[in-house]
Structure formats: structure tokens, C-alpha cells
Design goal:
about 325 residues; alpha+beta
Length: about 325
């Protein structure tokens, strides 16, 4: 049971880590969304520029790459309606995201970069150079971007239209830091000092990596529960081995004494004890591996993006249990 629980906890942790740090098609490391309270945009920018851990500051508007905010426009294509997500970025924010431009047709006034999914849903080809919004409204296509996942890697790729511009009505900041863990707290303190109520400060600052991790809250809760039961299983197995080793030592006390009198060393007697307890440990490991493999294969099948069950995972869980058991027996034997 302990081997199975340890294997499950390790697999869930590895899968969570795999999902949170999966490549999404844009940069998330050390990036934060920071909104300034109304009328405090320039003051906020000035304060951000003075912070020692801030490396670059971009400006964005409308749809974020997290669940923070979104804006869209619906385009009718015959019987089909395409819901196109809209985002405005300045050149710095565009570079900080690290979006891959597959084709660049040349930036024009009011032009949009469409991702591959938008091109597919709109039935556009490389020859198309304008977006038809309907009612005679058209805008030039500046280029095509490689597809990326909004929110997390498990979300379907959504059609995006991204416009590069500097003048925005309700802009926010995309801030690149040097990785200092105090950055988020400093940003929240800044927006509070600029007039944001303390209860709303958390809505003004959002770390991209933190936001991705929050979308896997259910899996994180599962990991906590499994970890708790794993700890209980380990404690139970240690107590069991303590009882068994004490019983075995008392049962064979005379035999051990005779072996010592006949010249056996303490190390040889200890090896005898360890051999006795290693055999059931190995048997339990052989039983636990297929059970663990079946359970975790079934759990991982719920994810389209998942890790492979490597032999080292089972070996690590079995080795951990083996070491815990051996240490328990050795301490009691000595």
C-alpha cells in the first residue's frame, strides 16, 4: 500500500509540474500583468521603472493570455460564426510574449496578426490580406502567428487577432522581472498606494505562471489528499516493522546469543536480520508495481497532455519504502 501511495503521489506531482510548465507557445516566466487604478497610469509606470527587479515594461489592452480579461468580435462566415479574441500590444509586450511570427506581410496602420487557428476558422489562405469584420469594415492582415494556448495547455487553441499599437484607451502593463519573489508583493503594495482598495489589489496584479497553476486547483487538491494518505501509510508501515522486528529479535534472542558466542560479528547478525525482512519487502514491491501502473495509467488517461510512466518512478517509490523499512529494522536490531 505504501509503495502504491508513494508512486501515485510522485506521478501526480510530476504530471502537475508537466502541465504547469508545458510550452504554451508564448513566454510566461517572470511575467506579470499589472493594472493601474483609474487615472494613475503614468504614476504607476514611473514607480514600476524605479523598481530594481523590473527589467522591461510593455503595454497591452483587451484579452490577456490568462482568465484575467478578454474581448472578442464575432465574424459571420456563411452559416458559421467565428468568435475572434482581440488583443492590443505595444512592440515591447509583443516581444516579451515571444510569439512566433510565421509570415510577416508588413505592419500597416490598424493591421492585425492572426494566429493559425483564426486563419483556419475564417477559411483564409496566404493570399488573403484583409479581415472582413462585416458591414463593409475591413482591416489589413499584418501576418500569421503560430498557434498558442490561452490559459493552459489543456485548453483548445482559440482564434486570435493581435494588433500592434501604442495608443490605448484602457491599457495595462506587461512587466518582466528578474525573478525576484518579492515582485508580486511590491506590485500589490504599489497599486494600493495609488488608491486601489486593499480588498481589490489582487485583481490588479497577476503572475502568468501563478495563473496557470491556479487552473489546476483540482489536481493540486488531489495531490494534497494523496500525500496525506501516503504519510499515514509510511507511518503505519514503520510502526508495523518496528513491532515485527522487536517480535523477531525477542523470538530469536537465544539464537543470536549463540551466534555471537560462536564468533559471529554484529554485522553478520545484522545481515541475517535484514535478509529476513528484505524478502517480504521485495514481494510487496512486485505486487505493488502492476497495481500502481494500472491506477496511474487510468488517471493519466484523463489528460490529453501527459507524462509517460517511466520505470524510474516505480523504482524511486520502491527504493524509498525499502530504505525506510531497512532503517527501522537496523535501529531496532542495533
Amino acid at each position: 500500500i505504501t509503495v502504491t501511495m508513494l508512486t501515485s503521489a510522485l506521478v501526480i506531482w510530476l504530471q502537475l509540474n508537466h502541465l504547469i510548465h508545458a510550452p504554451l507557445g508564448y513566454n510566461t516566466k517572470n511575467l506579470y500583468y499589472v493594472y493601474a487604478p483609474q487615472g494613475q497610469f503614468q504614476a504607476a509606470r514611473s514607480l514600476l521603472e524605479k523598481m530594481p527587479f523590473v527589467e522591461e515594461i510593455g503595454v497591452f489592452q483587451n484579452t490577456t493570455f490568462t482568465n484575467l480579461s478578454w474581448s472578442s468580435n464575432t465574424i459571420s462566415r456563411g452559416d458559421k460564426k467565428v468568435n475572434l479574441l482581440l488583443a492590443d500590444l505595444d512592440s515591447t509586450a509583443f516581444r516579451l510574449y515571444g510569439l512566433e511570427v510565421l509570415k510577416d506581410y508588413g505592419l500597416t496602420d490598424g493591421g492585425y496578426y492572426l494566429n493559425e487557428e483564426a486563419m483556419r476558422q475564417l477559411d483564409y489562405t496566404d493570399k488573403d490580406r484583409e479581415i472582413d469584420w462585416g458591414s463593409g469594415q475591413k482591416r489589413p492582415i499584418a501576418g500569421i502567428l503560430r498557434d498558442f494556448h490561452r490559459v493552459n495547455v489543456l485548453q483548445d487553441v482559440q482564434p486570435f487577432a493581435i494588433r500592434l499599437q501604442n495608443n490605448m484607451e484602457w491599457p495595462g502593463f506587461l512587466v518582466k522581472t528578474n525573478g525576484d519573489k518579492k515582485a508580486k508583493i511590491a506590485f500589490m503594495e504599489m497599486v494600493k498606494d495609488l488608491g486601489s482598495p486593499e480588498s481589490e489589489a489582487k485583481w490588479f496584479v497577476c503572475g502568468l505562471e501563478d495563473s496557470i497553476a491556479e487552473t489546476f486547483e483540482e489536481q493540486q487538491n488531489t495531490l494534497k489528499i494523496i500525500s496525506l494518505f501516503t504519510l499515514i501509510a509510511i507511518v503505519s508501515s514503520v510502526m508495523g516493522y518496528m513491532g515485527l522486528s522487536l517480535f523477531f529479535i525477542r523470538q530469536r534472542q537465544k539464537e543470536i546469543a549463540i551466534r555471537k558466542v560462536m564468533g559471529s560479528t554484529s554485522g553478520e547478525v545484522l545481515l541475517l536480520m535484514l535478509r529476513t525482512f528484505s524478502i517480504p519487502m521485495l514481494i510487496s514491491f512486485v505486487i505493488a508495481v502492476p497495481i500502481s501502473w494500472y491506477i496511474m495509467t487510468d488517471w493519466l488517461s484523463n489528460f490529453s497532455y501527459r507524462i509517460a510512466l517511466s520505470p524510474w518512478i516505480f523504482a524511486a517509490a520502491g527504493f524509498t519504502c525499502f530504505i525506510i523499512s531497512l532503517l527501522t529494522v537496523i535501529i531496532q536490531s542495533l
